């Protein structure tokens, strides 16, 4: 095999683990040192394995190398001698200093604490996602830049500023106090939700990268579920939402890589297993009295896992959007609600409500009106679709709208 | 942008509706609120259930239920954002409560905490 495949895969999963554990040991002031040691560890693997063969237990090999590198770093590096070592020595009694704990328990604790630290409210959301991708998911700067459709320099700057913030705000690698846990958890969920969306809706052409983003968001969310204190209904709801969305991943593109809209998708390509997992977690989310937006969005996504158009389906979706919008407004939800309204009450009724939405700068607003007017007023339908075409920002959207104009 | 309370008044709160009717009204009310929320003009709102309602009078006598000599009662209210009372009244026109003859929706501006109102 397949070294080329094995190493990136290991890198992804192990980078975050090693970095989190070392960071916990060294403190946030030295997050870059922790990252460097993790990177050097992989470099060592890359320089050894192709020639000597892949070790029987690659993970154990990596941990052993990482431990050694960390120890060397601790004893050799001048900076460590002066700054880090005393701090560690003060906290850990003599013989403990060299004990780098890479047990499963410490790995998952460190990663969870890292997740809370990275999603600290003092760090801007975009930087939170970047940091999570870098430190927790082991993404390279190139990959992050690609995912954000940005360049290396911008991402580097953004990450640098975020790490500075971690330092200056004295953010610690620890679980928030129980009284604070709930508020901090909301922030973590927002970041994981954005991370998932970044993958699901990203404009990057790189399908593998997009899938990786979604999978990482799901892995981190699952980590919260596996930890008793954060295994809350809304976390399960978010996970269910991700499962339902991700179940359509393969069906969203046709053989030529063109986007397949929901109505045109081959439902046999939907991942039934993921849908089942989603249903289980939606069940677990149905506890307590707090109804989060994730509950509503997961329920909407659940109804979309049933392809057939039934009055029941759209009545439920409309009802859920009504509720969602009264909790938190967003243009996307407003437009989707209007689409559901058209399914329940007919296009005429939906047009009246659509025209009140005051979203005339939004390309999807015009796409929706184009769709609604299609069988009622061809001229208006075309006008709206042309508006949509002018306003569309991405090539994918332009292609989709163009196809709709052609089909009129 | 101002905030207005839309207060839904029932002419006769003692009228009993069938469960089906009530469910239909509930659905209509949620669609009505959803339509306002879709314009990002919904602030908050609540129904006011009649159960356990009490009226306290001048003499500090407490009676059960909002209905005594007066049958008219408030069923709930919502708060909306609107440029003007006229715009708020446009929202009120769509309120399902108005399907009942004699029912009204009162539009009232919410006082701003600006030391003027």
From TrEMBL, chain A:
Segments passing through the bilayer: none
Residue ranges constituting the DUF6596 domain according to the UniProt record: 184-285
Domain of life: Bacteria
Pfam family, one: Sigma70_r2
Domain named RNA polymerase sigma-70 region: residues: 18-78
Protein name: RNA polymerase subunit sigma
From TrEMBL, chain B:
Domain YCII-related residues, every copy: 4-108
InterPro entries hit by this protein: Dimeric_a/b-barrel, YCII
Entry-linked Pfam families: YCII (PF03795)
Domain of life from the UniProt record: Bacteria
Family designation: Belongs to the YciI family.
Protein name per the record: Transcription initiation protein
């Amino acid at each position: 095999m397949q070294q080329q495949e094995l190493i990136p895969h290991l890198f992804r999963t192990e980078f975050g683990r090693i970095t989190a554990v070392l960071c916990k040991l060294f403190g946030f002031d030295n997050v870059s040192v922790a990252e460097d040691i993790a990177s050097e560890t992989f470099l060592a693997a890359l320089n050894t394995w192709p020639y000597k063969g892949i070790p029987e237990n690659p993970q154990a090999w990596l941990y052993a190398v990482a431990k050694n590198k960390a120890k060397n770093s601790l004893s050799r590096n001048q900076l460590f001698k002066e700054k880090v070592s005393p701090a560690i020595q003060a906290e850990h009694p003599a013989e403990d200093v060299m004990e780098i704990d890479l047990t499963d328990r410490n790995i998952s604790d460190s990663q969870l604490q890292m997740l809370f630290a990275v999603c600290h409210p003092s760090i801007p959301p975009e930087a939170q996602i970047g940091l999570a991708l870098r430190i927790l998911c082991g993404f390279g700067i190139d990959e992050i830049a690609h995912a954000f459709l940005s360049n290396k320099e911008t991402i580097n700057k953004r990450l640098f500023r975020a790490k500075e913030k971690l330092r200056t705000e004295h953010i610690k690698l620890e679980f928030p106090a129980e009284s604070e846990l709930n508020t901090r958890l909301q922030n973590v969920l927002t970041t994981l939700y954005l991370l998932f969306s970044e993958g699901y809706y990203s404009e990057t052409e790189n399908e593998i990268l997009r899938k990786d983003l979604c999978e990482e968001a799901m892995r981190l969310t699952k980590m919260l579920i596996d930890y008793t204190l954060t295994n809350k209904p809304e976390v399960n709801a978010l996970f269910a939402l991700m499962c339902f969305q991700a179940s359509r991943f393969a069906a969203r593109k046709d053989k030529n890589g063109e986007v397949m809209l929901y109505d045109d998708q081959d439902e046999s390509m939907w991942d039934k297993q993921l849908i089942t997992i989603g249903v289980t977690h939606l069940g677990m989310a149905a506890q307590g009295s707090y109804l989060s937006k994730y509950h509503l969005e997961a329920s909407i996504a659940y109804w979309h896992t049933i392809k057939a158009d039934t009055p029941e389906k759209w009545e439920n979706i409309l009802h859920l959007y009504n509720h969602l919008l009264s909790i938190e407004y967003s243009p996307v939800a407003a437009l989707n609600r209007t689409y559901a309204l058209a399914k329940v009450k007919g296009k005429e009724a939906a047009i009246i409500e659509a025209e009140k939405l005051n979203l005339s700068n939004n390309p999807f607003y015009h796409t929706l009106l184009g769709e609604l007017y299609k069988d009622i007023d061809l001229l208006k339908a075309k006008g709206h679709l042309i508006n949509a075409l002018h306003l569309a920002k991405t090539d994918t959207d332009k292609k989709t709208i163009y196809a709709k104009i052609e089909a009129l | 942008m101002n905030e207005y309370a839309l207060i839904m008044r029932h002419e006769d709160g003692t009228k009993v509706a069938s469960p089906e009717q009530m469910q239909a009204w509930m659905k209509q009310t949620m669609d009505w609120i959803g339509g306002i929320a879709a314009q990002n003009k919904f602030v908050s709102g609540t129904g006011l259930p009649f159960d356990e309602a009490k009226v306290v009078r001048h003499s500090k006598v407490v009676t059960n239920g909002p209905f005594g000599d007066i049958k008219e009662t408030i069923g709930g209210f919502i708060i909306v954002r609107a440029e003007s009372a006229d715009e708020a009244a446009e929202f009120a026109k769509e309120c399902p409560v108005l399907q009942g003859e004699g029912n009204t929706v009162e539009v009232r501006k919410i006082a701003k905490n600006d030391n003027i109102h």
